[in-house]
Amino acid sequence: MKSKMLIIPIAVILFAVYTAAYIVDETEQVVITQFGEAIGDAKTEPGLYFKIPMIQHVNRFPKTLLEWDGDPGQVPTLDKTFIYVDTFGRWKIVDPLKFFETVSNETGALGRLDDILDAAVRNFITSFPLIETVRMTNRQLDKSEEGVDVVEEISPMGEVNLGRRQIIKGVLEQAQPKLEEFGIHLVDVKIKRLNYVEEVQRTVYARMIAERKQIAEKFRSEGQGEARKIEGNREKDLKEITSEAYRTAQEIKGKADAESTRIYAAAYSKDPEFYSFLNTLDIYRQSMDKDSSLVLSTDSDFLKYFKGYKGKMAVE
Hints:
By secondary structure, the protein is α+β, with helices and mostly antiparallel strands. It has helices spanning about 1-20, 95-100, 105-125, 130-135, 150-155, 165-180, 200-270, 270-285, 305-315; strands at about 20-25, 30-35, 35-45, 45-50, 55-60, 65-70, 75, 80-95, 185-195. It is built from nine helices and nine strands.
């Protein structure tokens, strides 16, 4: 009976010790509260700690980086261009006691971050032209496409005086002092996405289509000009080849005619009378047939070979 009575107090003591002890991990920090009020300093170093059981409560907060995702919203730039801006950030709790007393938990902290960061982002974007938010420097863009110079003439990019990096730096500098009172350190803020609103998108797409059509028309006109040039060169080459071939053919033909004339002359010069006889026979064949009628004098030289033929026949 006495042993049972001793076990009960020991169990109570062990339970009290168990509920009084708590461990702080290296990735977290702890604030002890008693009846909802913070007691003592925050425990930021890892180790074993003790509290009053059942009365004091352990509130754990992470030491690691935490996420903040901004609410995408429509923001006008200084040059009256409406865009959707989507931002995100990273933050951490550097003063857990102040954090607990002001915002209580991460949900409350995210609400304050929304109010402060969204306002800061909107304030800076509305203070500068669109080009300042889109680009960081005036670095020459990669223009791998032919005809991009036409696009530049239509819609020049403009000059960057500040750039996105400086705008983000300004957002950080504006927001950080306001977050210090909540025990929050803002590590970084970035713009996740920029996009035109629907009305501006339609205008931009229409302009892009017009620019592409202008570039295509430029290519077509250049291609047509090149085609005409090629066709002209082809016609020129064809005429040169034809004329050269004709000249060569005429030279060959002239040489052949000259050679044939020389051969005929050499042949006929051996017997001029026989040559005259053959030519006269050719004339007879061409000028006289069964349907031809000629009235000639018997003294005509045209019939001299007939006369000679008759004479020979008479002699025989």
